[in-house]
Write a structure and sequence with these properties.
With 175 residues, the chain is an alpha/beta fold. It contains seven helices and seven strands. A hairpin with a 4-residue loop joins β3 (51-55) and β4. The longest helix is centred in the C-terminal third of the chain and has 17 residues, at 156-172. The radius of gyration is 16 Å and the shape is globular. It is found in: Cytoplasm; Nucleus. Belongs to the adenylate kinase family. AK6 subfamily.
Length: 175
């Protein structure tokens, strides 16, 4: 799955999904369990100013995808990264050996996003995104299908099972 000539000794994993599906929670725990670097794109964008300003309507930064990719290029070539972000179509395909799409039941997702204080329009946009499996389709269109895996993320038990599944996958990965 890695381009010929790659020097990567450890895989890169992209964890994507609708906001509220548990990307950061699972990515942090997985990174700790298997000693990979966790890169939260939302935090990186804020920390390094990799954005083109604030979108009041969507209540978030407008990320500059080119700046994000430039920032990550060398890190990703080295391997051993778990990247966590709700989008996936702008990252170079060559970066990722596994693309995980977390999926959550709509009622669970609604409750999680409500607790975050999401506005009604932001809530409904994200729940609709999950209903129509927008992120899964985006991942399947952006990466070879054999690299894309959809995992359920409704409970702590689901997260633990996902960590076990991905730990096993990393243990079996060969460049």
């Amino acid at each position: 799955m890695v381009e010929q000539g790659s020097q990567r000794k450890r895989p890169n994993i992209l964890v994507t999904g609708t906001p509220g599906t548990g990307k950061t929670t699972m990515s942090s725990a997985l990174a700790e369990a298997i000693q990979l670097r966790h890169i939260n794109i939302g935090e990186l964008v804020k920390e390094k100013n990799l954005h083109d300003g604030w979108d009041d309507e969507l209540d978030c930064y407008v990320i500059n995808e080119d700046l994000v990719c430039d920032e990550l290029e060398d890190i990703m070539e080295g391997g051993g990264n778990i990247v966590d972000y709700h989008g996936c179509d702008f990252f170079p395909e060559r970066w990722f050996d596994c693309v995980v799409v977390l999926q959550t039941d709509n009622s669970v997702l609604y409750d999680r996003l409500s607790k975050r204080g999401y506005t009604e329009s932001k809530l409904s946009n994200n729940v609709e995104c999950e209903i129509f499996q927008v992120l899964l389709e985006e991942a399947k269109e952006s990466y070879p299908e054999d690299r894309v895996i959809a995992l359920r993320s409704d409970t702590i038990e689901d997260i633990n099972m996902n960590i076990a599944t991905l730990t096993e996958w990393v243990g079996n990965w060969h460049p």
